[in-house]
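chain below, 204 aa
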Amino acid sequence: MGLSRQEVNLRRLLAKCELMCKSKQKDDDRMPKYVESLEDMYQEVKKTSDPNYEFLLVYQGRIAAIKAELGITTSKYPPENDTELLRKSLLGVRHRNVPETSDLNQVLNFHEGLQQKITDDMLILTKNLKEQSELANKIIKKDTEVVSRSTQLTDQNYTKLSSESNKLAEHSKRAWKCWMWIMLLIVLVVFINMVLFMKVMKKK
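prediction:
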């Protein structure tokens, strides 16, 4: 039977909190909220799981260890419920897995099987983290390519704009020179006409 989504989320958050405790991030302001979320997830998993489900004990122990590391002693869930679960779960696990003869080899096999399940769980978590990391890398690579293409397009547009600006400036310069010569010609024509007009007037 596969893990429920709530149990997968619980395992992920447990691994994250344990890693933060080991990496000296236990003073992070988010840790109390994480612990509260762990307890909520644990209660949901406990509601939907078999009372004798072995991993309930594992989850409970890991949450207790995290709370002890952070110095958290309070909980919004009654402690007697957890104690009762420990008793019932422990008795159920022993009843189903350890024969009444208390054979040492079978006890060892039981614990080895439990450790194997924990190892498998960690492998699944590692695989999920690896897949998420690869997906994030693909997204980042794609975004980088988009930014690179946008930068290249911007450079091309800037080059074209500079070229067109230079052409426009050259065209404006030529037009200005042309108008200047026209104005000079007009002034010259007017001046000549004035001189001729003055000579004619003197003769009269």
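The chain has a mean pLDDT of 80. Residues 104-203 form the longest helix (100 residues).
thats it, cya
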